[in-house]
Design brief:
The protein is of the alpha/beta class. The protein has a domain of 210 residues: Aldolase class I (TIM Barrel, Alpha-Beta Barrel). It is 47% helix and 12% strand. The chain has an eight-stranded parallel sheet with strand order 1-8-7-6-5-4-3-2. Strand 3, helix 3 and strand 4 form a beta-alpha-beta unit.
Length: 301
């Protein structure tokens, strides 16, 4: 039986780290891992959307995970997203993740072709079978995957004893309640509704903006768990305002956040095309968002 207590808290989605040539930077991966652990996060979600997984090769994704694990093994919970656009590559990444000693693997559904539920279940179960000693987490992100988790699909997946939970990035918080009622752990996905997700029973959150302001998410959770809901709401609202500010740039959100991290001494490089990089006018937004984060930390933390 898996120890489900380790699947709680604030778990940043790990960013892709590139060198000046646009290749995976092992040094950057290790530096970002150490930085986030030093901030007190409870785990890391590696190889997901924030890790630009769909723009990386199988070998690159292995390299990222290996360097995360070299720093994080035994220190925080590690969940490795292993889905690819075909089953064979996904199984290869799942087996590799298990060999690295991750706590769990995760997977979005197959994308592009809209498969029937039995096809999605077969895909997930094939991936899970390649890592038979590792927990499996379903990643529900219908706005990007084009396929939504349904109660009937979840009930089918519950027949697999390795399935322990859902990373829920759909916007309705009702989905968290639905998956919780099925007896699974649920992570809140949308960063803008972190404390709303906690209120609906999420065990914690996995989020793409956490890494650039982990202090604020940790404080929001601390306040919420202490019953200081109004104060937690104030921090959540500030997090939302920062997200809106960062999203105002021409460049991709991850490019903005990596530029903020560089100001903090962690160089994760840029983003990989076709994601748009920053343009000159974006640097004023980077500076303003970085200052906003600093001010919010000073006020609430």
């Amino acid at each position: 039986m898996s120890d489900r207590n380790k699947y709680s808290g604030v778990i940043p989605a790990f960013y892709a780290c590139y060198d000046q040539a646009g290749e995976i930077s092992p040094a950057g991966v290790r530096a970002l891992t150490e930085y986030l652990i030093g901030k007190g996060v409870h785990g890391l979600y590696v190889g997901g959307s924030s890790g630009e997984c769909i723009y990386q090769s199988v070998a690159e994704r292995k390299l990222v995970l290996e360097n995360v694990m070299a720093v994080a093994r035994g220190r925080v919970t590690i969940i490795a997203h292993v889905a690819c656009n075909n089953t064979a590559d996904s199984r290869e990444l799942a087996a590799h993740a298990q060999s690295q000693g991750v706590d769990a693997i995760a997977s979005i559904p197959p994308i592009y072709f809209h498969l029937p539920e039995y096809g999605i279940a077969s895909y997930w179960n094939d991936i899970s079978a390649a890592a038979p000693d590792t927990d499996f987490i379903i990643y529900n992100i219908p706005q990007l995957a084009g396929v939504a988790l349904t109660p009937s699909l979840l009930r089918e997946m519950k027949k697999n004893p390795r399935v322990i939970g859902v990373k829920n990035s759909s916007m309705p918080t009702q989905d968290i309640q639905m998956w919780r009622d099925e007896g699974l752990i649920v992570f809140n996905g949308p960063d803008e509704q972190f404390i709303s997700g906690l209120a609906m029973g999420a065990c914690g959150g996995i989020g793409g903006t956490y890494a650039v302001m982990p202090e604020l998410l940790l404080k929001a959770r601390e306040l919420f768990l202490a019953g200081q809901v109004e104060q937690a709401r104030q921090v959540q609202n500030e997090v939302c305002r920062i997200i809106y500010q960062m999203c105002a740039a021409h460049g991709n959100l991850y490019a903005v956040m990596k530029a903020i991290l560089k100001k903090r001494g962690v160089d994760a490089g840029g983003v990989r095309k076709p994601l748009p990089g920053l343009i000159e006018s974006d640097y004023a937004i980077v500076d303003a968002a970085a200052a906003h984060i600093d001010a919010a930390i000073a006020q609430y933390c």
